[in-house]
């Protein structure tokens, strides 16, 4: 029986044999039973009704009326499997579903094992499995364990080639153009015996069979001569068929035995269905990926084969183990590695058991099998594959999703200990095997842990269609739409106007971490293992969407125009505490959102602002917003305090330029408002869990705290935007490295927030100006001079255990800018940030706009290119910005400079600035008016404050 047919047959057969005659099997549920929403009572009632109907059969017959038999478990499952609606299933159907799934997975495993064993043969016919696909390649992965099978698995488990049965046809695909190698080049020829057997299976269904004497072939996006050469090498005669295989109306494909596609095959809307037609009709289909680049047409061909192409940039950066098979690999080891379904079968058997004797902290084989299936479901749903359509390849996935629906209401998050492996695995699987593209699902009535309270399930949803305008900030990304999915309540979403975007999708939440029940410090199952939904593609036709976990709805987009507006229609969404300051919110919308925040019915509060988006749990939002006007919270504390402080110091265009910065840019000949100074992508923040530590940088930035102005989030934002001119490592090892360089930006934020909001956020990270000065004094007291003195100071400052004496160096240079360029007796917050804005603009200009003709404008006249060290870059840019040669200051701070850097500035004829220091009292680093200048060129007076 072919791979496409046995799945459906075995599922139905297993269902009928496992169910018996009807209600008798409905009285009990393996694994605990579902008692939510009357499920347990319904199960008992159904069992009684079944028996009653049987007992009344004689009476019905004597009255001339044939009674309608009560639905059996198989009947109910058949209905649910056809619709994706599990609401008609009983708790007792759980055991039947597992039995059917075990039978389906076992049969699939055995069929795949037979095919792979046939191709692999033995060492006499395949003497070597050694193989290297090379990095100019991509992975070719089965869409699901039941749609295709990996043929060649790399040492790290990556799928380098795959095969499949579709209908009456067979398919073969490699992640590089291996066909041309096997046609007769010298490349990887030890692989030819294996490839020859795969070719034999492709054409005949048996790798041991004699090949046809004549093989007719047609190609699309592939060089026909290569196919001819390969066929002739295998001993067959090759006959070319001229045919446009991409045209759905062609009939010439009937005349070919094998159809070969390459990565340049032209994409069209019907290509996938056309290739599926070829396979269903019994044709042999081949795909050869030309390299690491993407192929739109290739993806469609592979989708018809039940496979997927790896993401951009393929294997370009892959290590050897990801693209090769080691010479020591045995056939037995390969076949074991290719068996992806046995672990699932073992896990399904565990799900049936009342208790499971396994330590999940050390044995993660079952969770891994569950995760593999979850990832397959994500792949399918993200490709708009409806697993509940009548495709026999997805019979197993249908059964697993329906079983997960039945078990889910039994989960009480926070109450399932990891030591209870049986129930823990059932919760883990139920959370994992979710289909979001449906009209119904089942939920845990007690809530979804700290992700969503049970109260959310009572929220009202819109019964009519709502038109929603969504502003798209950039060409690709993710953005909140201002509506939420309520756990278990279905939505419909469609695109009214894509505004030119090439791809749109919908999901719940834009988060990157959700904990891990297997490793969370609390050894109980705290929350859904993946509460954020998969991303479902959107189009002009309504898309069904339902989630058992709920969450804010997020639009994903690509190929869009920045600042365009996508128009959506949504039915079944809920309003919650969402503030959108990218547009003008009405007073009523603001009041509704504020009331929702105070009520706390929904689990999340979200905010959109220009340049950023915030998602945080309602409890954390209540803590940071409190009774503050949301407009004040968003615009003053987040947008101005957090975002703008960082963007001013980084010289981004959205922050604008002060008159002094604009004038100096003109004087220096710098282009300070070009596109290279645009702010980075929209910055997302999530307040719930952290991907690392307590707060974690990235996009999104996330942490165990509400989003607010403070050192922590300024620090993480600094990680995302820090430039190399702040990364100072004089000896190549020690210095202001990660966690110090970004804190220079944190310190600029602290300085500005103190001035504008009166808030001190430096916490335990003050700029230690007194400490830095004490190191200058100690260095001078050594009596050293020249390079020896610089080296001593380098150790004192840049190998210091405290970064708090390193960061003031950049600020001391900023204070000099105030003195020499601004002409002020004391530095100010504004002029200090002017220096940083110019410094970071200069950094980007050197990186992106350097040429020998403009090198001198950056203080780099002796440089033929922009490969300048960080310390030298800080020196030359600072000298240009300040208007003085600051070499003596760099020596004073223990930063050695190259001859090219010193010579470039000397060529400009700038006056050498004397050694000076702006003394600030301890812990008053943000109160610049409290400081005094110290002239220390020829003496080292006591610290005055």
From TrEMBL:
Region (Disordered): 25-72
Signal peptide region: 1-18
UniProtKB keywords: Signal
Biased composition (Gly residues): 25-63
Pfam families: IMPa_helical, IMPa_N_2
Residue ranges of domain Peptidase M60 in the record: 476-795
Source taxon at top rank: Bacteria
InterPro entries associated with the record: IMPa_helical, IMPa_N_2, Peptidase_M60_dom
Cited NCBIfam families: ImpA_fam_HExGH
Protein name: Peptidase M60 domain-containing protein
